[in-house]
């Protein structure tokens, strides 16, 4: 790990000064005593080669009284360069760099502080927010210099992204300086890994094929082998392109197959000739950016135990324009059962591919998905790495001859068959069927006998809501082994008493009195203690059942030994989405994924129509085995009485080694907050602020980095838009 022990300070009209840097891998302190930088514009910049459009460090200012100014928002300048430009506090003593979500600081270089020219600040402000520059000028005229400085500071802040082209220009364009840096770092690797690229070829457009090969030859990382298996192509010009490439480049191995065997056999022919310790899969018409293999090799050098590496990707059209980026989650085995979200760029240890028998003929269209599910049978999560950078351009031009575009129906059928065989191979009693949008759906078998489910419903009056929830639970749900544990928080209305009397003779319904101040965690814990079921379902009193199979779906997942908690797909009454899983850090502590999208909207790359692992699910409808609930200590009734208790519960389940799963196949309506109301009083706001503080103290690392939400996506909301 490279960490600077000095920083350079450049003052206007003065020679550069070397500033002392103290600290360790946990934080760096840049001393500023005696520099007179208080209330002066400063640009702080550094290079972090492990990042691109997101910062792995936070920057804050240490003040004379020992407190800290809120974090100084770093902007990404592209390819690992980060900076902050603004006014330093009047009493600043030092600057601190600390890891955002890792245990230690990433390698940092080129640490520099510079006083920008006033003219440059004004010019930048005029391009970004001219009205604020005008306001700064007016305040300057009336001699309110500090107000003028703050207006100018606001004017120069980075502008919002204008679209994907803008994102590419700012964060994903390799410069000459980047190339020099990569080459310099590579020179220090004692054992650079050998990478073999497997390219099956069959009748592509010769010009497109030529560009695909050229993208490999232009790689900044030199230790590669391109294994091309021509699957008996008949198209004019293909053979000539391959012959020229093989003659010009000794790192290209050309295999000519005598008969067409389709993509799996062709890829295996390439695999037979692979000499690298890792193999990358590349279609005959797609493109690798010049830094793709360097990023992969760098990851392997950092962790030689890796077995599987994958990256983000986008598409490229016939004119070379990039579009539709896919910013992926980290390793998500539940999502992989439904869709091959890993491709592309996919890099796998060569021995591992060979050990499972390579690609299988008969799975064309989903041959990579089948391979990955077979590899995933015994794959340790810590041996999988997701590189959150766009390292693959998937050609979407019609007529390019891509294998994956050949037959959608065939691809769906083979994908489903691959899941069927995965289920059989792993000894599960489940079954596979075609799900929404053609993706896989795995229907889990319930344990035999089906476990008793204790549905814990905290309530206080609002009988009109509770009656709908109970009616749906007891008459519209096709799961028989149910008991409803109503935890009554001091109801006083006669309608509620009448409702309780109505169910008094129903052996499936019990009322547990729990008067006092509303404390969701305490009420839920009391309901759990009173529960007789093996599975607990925490359900708000404002939930409405709309389809019979919802509980069967939740219980079948919750019963899995590796699962800690399960959540449902919740809609508002107008059928816009309320809950699609929880994204940590979105909007502050956490936010609902895809909030507000229409019922028919499949979400970002169909994420809202397939089951997947998430960091947390809402307590409005949360299923958990009682044994897990007791193991992790239940809800925190002392410090998280109302807000974030469900997030905390899920994070503790994850910490204990369990997965949290969200499923779109359990659909309910949630009349959110109708029974409790909003955070609209001073007391409620104070309590909410206290609970927010608890979450930050307890889970700051997790809140900074949700593994199932890509770092390149905005955290203002969990809407899967560019950061």
UniProtKB/TrEMBL annotation:
This is GT2 family glycosyltransferase. Residues 196-322, 454-633 form the Glycosyltransferase 2-like domain. SUPFAM superfamilies: Nucleotide-diphospho-sugar transferases (SSF53448). Keywords: Transferase. GO terms for molecular function: glycosyltransferase activity. It comes from the Bacteria. It comes from Methylobacterium brachythecii. Signal peptide: none annotated. PANTHER family: RHAMNOSYLTRANSFERASE WBBL. InterPro entries: Glyco_trans_2-like (IPR001173), Nucleotide-diphossugar_trans (IPR029044).
């Amino acid at each position: 790990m490279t960490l600077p022990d000095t920083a350079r300070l450049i003052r206007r009209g003065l020679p550069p000064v070397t500033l002392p840097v103290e600290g360790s891998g946990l934080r760096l302190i840049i001393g500023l005593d005696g520099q007179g930088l208080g209330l002066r514009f400063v640009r702080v910049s550094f290079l972090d080669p492990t990042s691109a459009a997101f910062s792995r460090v936070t920057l804050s200012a240490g003040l004379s009284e020992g407190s800290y100014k809120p974090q100084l928002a770093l902007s990404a300048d592209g390819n690992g360069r980060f900076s902050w430009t603004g006014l330093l506090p009047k009493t600043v003593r030092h600057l601190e760099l600390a890891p955002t979500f890792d245990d230690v600081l990433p390698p940092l270089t080129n640490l520099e502080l510079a006083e920008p020219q006033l003219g440059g600040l004004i010019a930048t402000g005029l391009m970004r927010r001219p009205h604020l520059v005008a306001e700064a000028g007016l305040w300057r005229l009336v001699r309110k210099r500090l107000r003028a400085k703050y207006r100018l500071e606001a004017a120069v802040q980075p502008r919002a992204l204008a679209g994907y082209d803008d994102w590419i220009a700012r964060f994903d364009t390799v410069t000459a300086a980047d190339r020099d840096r990569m080459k310099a770092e590579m020179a220090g690797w004692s054992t650079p890994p050998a990478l073999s690229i497997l390219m099956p070829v069959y009748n592509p457009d010769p010009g497109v094929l030529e560009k695909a090969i050229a993208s490999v030859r232009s790689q900044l990382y030199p230790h590669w082998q391109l294994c091309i298996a021509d699957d008996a192509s008949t198209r004019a010009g293909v053979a000539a392109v391959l012959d020229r490439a093989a003659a010009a480049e000794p790192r290209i191995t050309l295999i000519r197959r005598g008969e067409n065997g389709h993509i799996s056999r062709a890829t295996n022919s390439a695999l037979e000739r692979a000499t690298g310790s890792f193999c990358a899969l590349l279609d005959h018409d797609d493109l690798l950016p010049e830094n793709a293999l360097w990023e992969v090799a760098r990851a392997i050098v950092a962790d030689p135990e890796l077995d599987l590496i994958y990256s983000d990707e986008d598409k490229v059209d016939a004119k070379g324009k990039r579009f539709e980026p896919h910013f992926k989650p980290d390793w998500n085995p539940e999502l992989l059962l439904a869709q091959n979200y890993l491709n592309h760029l996919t890099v796998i240890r060569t021995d591992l591919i060979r050990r499972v028998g390579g690609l299988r003929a008969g799975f064309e269209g989903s041959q990579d998905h089948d391979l990955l599910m077979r590899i995933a049978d015994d794959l340790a999560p810590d041996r999988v790495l997701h590189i959150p950078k766009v390292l693959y351009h998937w050609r979407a031009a019609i007529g390019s001859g891509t294998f994956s575009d050949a037959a959608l129906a065939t691809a769906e059928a083979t994908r489903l068959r691959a899941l069927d065989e995965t289920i059989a191979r792993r000894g599960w009693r489940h079954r596979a069927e075609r799900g929404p949008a053609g993706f896989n759906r795995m229907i889990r078998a319930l344990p035999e006998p089906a476990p008793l489910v204790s549905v814990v419903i905290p309530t206080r009056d609002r009988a009109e809501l509770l009656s709908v929830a109970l009616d749906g639970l007891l008459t519209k749900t096709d799961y028989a082994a149910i008991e409803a544990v109503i935890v009554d928080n001091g109801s006083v209305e006669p309608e509620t008493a009448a409702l309780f009397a109505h169910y008094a003779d129903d052996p499936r319904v019990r009322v547990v009195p729990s008067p006092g101040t509303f404390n969701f965690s305490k009420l839920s814990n009391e309901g759990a203690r009173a529960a007789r079921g093996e599975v607990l379902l925490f359900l708000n009193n404002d939930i409405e059942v709309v389809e019979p199979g919802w509980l069967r779906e939740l219980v079948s997942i919750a019963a899995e030994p590796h699962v800690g908690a399960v959540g449902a797909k919740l809609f508002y009454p107008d059928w816009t989405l309320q809950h699609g899983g929880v994204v940590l850090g979105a909007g502050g502590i956490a936010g609902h994924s895809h909030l507000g999208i229409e019922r028919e909207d499949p979400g970002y790359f169909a994420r809202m129509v397939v089951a997947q692992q998430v960091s947390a699910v809402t307590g409005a409808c949360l299923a958990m085995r009682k044994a897990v609930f007791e193991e992790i200590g239940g809800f925190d009734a002392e410090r998280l009485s109302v807000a974030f208790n469900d997030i905390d519960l899920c994070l503790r389940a994850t910490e204990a080694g369990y997965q949290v799963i969200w499923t779109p196949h359990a659909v309910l309506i949630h009349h959110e907050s109708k029974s409790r109301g909003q955070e609209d009083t001073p007391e409620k706001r104070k309590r909410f602020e206290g609970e927010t503080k608890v979450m930050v103290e307890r889970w700051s690392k997790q809140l900074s980095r949700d593994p199932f939400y890509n770092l390149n996506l905005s955290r203002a909301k969990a809407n899967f838009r560019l950061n």
